[in-house]
Write a structure and sequence with these properties.
It comes from Paenibacillus apii. The radius of gyration is 69 Å and the shape is rod-shaped. It contains 3 helices and 32 strands. By secondary structure, it is mainly beta. Among the domains are: 78 residues, no CATH class; 113 residues, Jelly Rolls (Sandwich), CATH 2.60.120. The strands form 10 sheets. It has an 8-stranded mixed beta sheet with strand order 1-4-7-8-6-5-3-2, with no helix packed on it. Strands 23, 26, 27, 29 and 32 form a 5-stranded antiparallel beta sheet that branches. The relative contact order is 0.06. It is 10% helix and 30% strand.
């Protein structure tokens, strides 16, 4: 018999002698056998509908829809007393089943969950630590002992608030925490520093994160220590301190001229040096004061005030010093007639010998009748010396003659070998004289 290719159903050929009853029955039996075989195969593949654990067993589609809806059931929103949470639901949560639930408040320490009349059990993280809950929706897995949060992500590191920049947050086992490291942006200043005497500048900065680079380039943070004295004008020009080249001139010349001089109230010399650094000592920046500068501070520094042959600070003197002699003598015996310009007088004469110079100034005083005379008359001739001769009275006990340019007389002379003069009248007992060249 000829049959179909899929289910082997009998075919009626054109040249067949047909028997309607027979052929119809044969076709029916063939169809029934094919359907029975296929249905058995389907039943073996998907199982028996009655064995489904779903509530709906009417059709495979309805059963699948029920599984899709209730595979991860949502239990609703909890109530709580502190960290003890509970919920009443129509769902039955067996061991090794997951579900979603919304917690109505955040937890603080060790949260627990009680479903319907079950036992309150701990809510854990995947690593076994107590969960930190917020007022939000979570997916939990019930293993028969504890509830475990699902979808918490990977492991957390060891960073805490003290390891994170202020204003930033980081996830931890206990939830998000906010960092406490202060940001030291904008070149925070430090005023805490010291030097150790070995060339090191040791500074302390406030704790924090220094993220600005202030022109140093990417990847280099910076902070600023401010000292208004750290400028080139305070550093020697031959020194470079922490990259700052000094500008104070270093003076090593042994003939650095003074900028000016003056005189202190006590007569000391004040010298105004050039600005700069000097080591001090011989050959290390001496200050040269010129003669002109010295004379500007002390006008009396001149040749006319310095003895001839003597040089003081480059000024050679031209003053010839006066020679001096003094003594006490008695008048010569007798009196002598002194013809002088004012008349003729009987006067006492004195003689001084042994001088080492020709006197130009001569003065005397005398005691008459035992009393120093307050009225002294003195007459001096220059004998062949071109001396000036004069006389006068005064009330200072001394009579002084300046011997300059007049000659005459025979009884009075002025020379190194003999100084002879006429003095006042009366009983003269003592005569004191002085002579200067």
């Amino acid at each position: 018999m000829t049959t179909t290719s899929n289910y082997n159903l009998p075919l009626i050929l054109d040249n067949s002698i047909n028997d309607v009853k027979r052929d119809t029955n044969a076709l029916a039996n063939a169809v029934d056998s094919a359907i029975a075989t296929t249905a058995g195969s389907i039943r073996n593949d998907i199982g028996v509908m009655g064995d489904l654990t779903t509530a709906d067993k009417n059709s495979l589609v309805e059963a699948v829809n029920e599984v899709h809806t209730k595979a991860t059931p949502h239990l609703g929103t909890t109530t709580n007393s502190g960290d003890s949470y509970s919920i009443t639901t129509t769902e039955s949560i067996a061991a090794n089943r997951k579900f979603t639930i919304k917690f109505n408040a955040a937890s603080s320490t060790v949260p627990t969950l009680k479903i319907n009349s079950g036992t309150a059990s701990a809510i854990k993280k995947a690593n076994g630590n107590n969960a930190k809950l917020y007022a939000s929706v979570y997916t939990l897995f019930w293993d028969g002992t504890n509830f475990t949060l699902l979808g918490e992500g990977g492991e957390y590191g060891t960073a805490g608030a003290a390891d994170v920049l202020a204003g930033k947050t980081v996830g931890t086992d206990t939830g998000l925490v906010t960092g406490t490291i202060p940001s030291r942006a904008n070149d925070q200043y430090s005023s805490s520093f010291y030097t150790n005497g070995s060339g090191d500048l040791v500074t302390g900065f406030p704790t924090g994160a220094y993220l600005n680079n202030s022109g140093f380039g990417a990847g280099i943070a910076s902070a600023t220590i401010n000292d208004p004295d750290f400028i080139a004008a305070n550093i020697r020009s031959d020194k470079n301190i922490f990259g700052l080249q000094g500008s104070i001139p270093v003076i090593t010349s042994g003939s650095d001229p003074a900028q000016g001089v003056g005189q202190w109230p006590d007569g000391g010399l004040a010298v105004y040096p050039s600005e700069g650094y000097r080591k001090g000592g011989a050959g290390a920046g001496e200050i040269k004061v010129s003669v002109t500068q010295l004379q500007s501070a002390e006008p009396d520094l001149s040749a006319g005030n310095i003895r001839s042959g003597v040089t003081i600070y480059g000024v050679t003197g031209n003053v010839t010093p006066r020679q001096y002699a003094a003594g006490t003598v008695s008048p010569d015996a007798g009196t002598y007639n002194a013809g002088i310009r004012e008349g003729s007088y009987q006067m006492n004469r004195i003689s001084v010998t042994g001088l080492s110079f020709n006197p130009n100034i001569f003065r005397v005083r005398f005691k008459a009748d035992g009393v120093w005379s307050t009225s002294v008359m003195c007459d001096i001739w220059g004998y062949g010396l071109g001396c000036f001769v004069t006389w006068w009275w005064n009330n200072e006990y001394w009579a002084t003659e300046v011997v300059t340019g007049w000659a005459g007389g025979t009884d009075i002379q002025m020379s190194a070998s003999l100084c002879r003069a006429m003095v006042g009248t009366g009983s003269i007992t003592e005569i004191t004289w002085e002579a200067w060249s």
